[in-house]
Amino acid sequence: MRAARHVVAxxxxxxxxxxxxxxxxxxAIAGPPVVDVRAFGARGDxxxxxxxxxxxxxxxxxxxxxxxxxxxxxxxxxxxxGARPMNLVGAHTAVIGRAGRSTLRxxxxxxxxxxxxxxxxxxxxxxxxxGIVVRGLRFDGNDRGNLGRRGRAExxxxxxxxRALLVEDCEFLDAKHHGIATILGANLxxxxxRFYRISQTEHAGDAVQLxxxxxxxxxxxxxxxSDEGIFCQHENDPPTAARGCALIRNxxxxxxxxxxxxxxxxxxxxxxxAGRGRTTCTAADASGCLCASGASTGSGLGVLALGAxxxxxxxxxxxxxxxxxxxxxxxxxxxxxLVAKNRLLxxxxxxxxxxxxxxxxxxxxxxxxxxxxxxxRVDRTRDAGIRLASARAPLTRVEVADNVVTASCTAHAPCGxxxxxxxxxxxxxxxxxxxxxxxxxxVVLPGRGPVHYRTSDTIRAPAT
Length: 464
Hints:
Strand order of the largest sheet: 1-3-6-9-12-15-18-23-26-29-32-35-38-40
Number of strands: 41
Number of helices: 4
Helix content: under 10%
CATH class of the domain at 1-264: Mainly Beta
Distance between the termini: 83 Å
Shape: elongated
């Protein structure tokens, strides 16, 4: 038996080396013991229910950690199979596949309220797990095979109270709700992943949702046709502030229906229902077509945190970039956020967020303070290019400088390239500095609260 295990381990390490991710980084992670899911009966043929085999492979990793190898193949996961919860990843465990070739897919017709479509989660949701690595896997939520079925809002990959989590070089597609969701935790890294068609049939899902992290970096990811994009936000249960979030060099894009199934890099056919398996969608497929242009119902990038950096991202035809203060998010303020060198392009097509602003700094009902909006470019938006708004809480100490806004306010009035807007009782905008912005005239929309600012830019009264 021991000799057989050595053979399996050697074969798994050879597969890892062949995955194109070899080197010191992988060698350090792929320490003994190394477990291959096929040694526990997983077939990966796209037809066999591999739920129990993968669960047993993950449970075979001892408390000290190890590596679970998922070879090329499509491994069906059926939440109705085996013990629940299933597919639990323990501390100091790496789960590694071959990028683009190792797929965990939710089975057809199984999406249900008690499971929510989770394909992988950490083992200890009460105390948390340290040092989990997920690399090179494709997570397929198979919304195509679960049309019309509704369940609990969940994610394909969920990690609760995880510390030192790394998710990289993975694909997440066709999730009903979230691609990745973390709850609490610290030192989280999500990088170089791709997300396709997230929450297209049941809205309000994010590609990445980080709730109450203590230090998180989300960088160099690509999101295509997601209802909402990447969020780092306070957690309300238990109330925990998000701190130290960095959203860097991510690209978020919504493709029109004609291009969404054929664009380079978008994995396989995305039509469903009568059009399942085709690479393009017709008008008759509209109700079951997951490649319809995804008109976002929320933000492409969103921050509710104590300290955050949102820099060098590109948003094309998505909702907006938002920094918000919302009391329901744990009751915490949002403060000390840098929004810099982002590009927001062609947002005018989206009418679901009319009046919201392309870059929106909004104190809804919790304070927002200490925000810097600098060197961003906004091209073509229905409403304000940069909107500072206080609804029922104060917005204070905001700098808006060296931004470029072109072709704003194409479908909304009154409106300004840069817009200051106070609301009802409790609203106040104070300590705002606006300077050296190009192509954007300032419009002030006064409400019941005061609006105090300094500017060297051109000021325009709102249209009446």
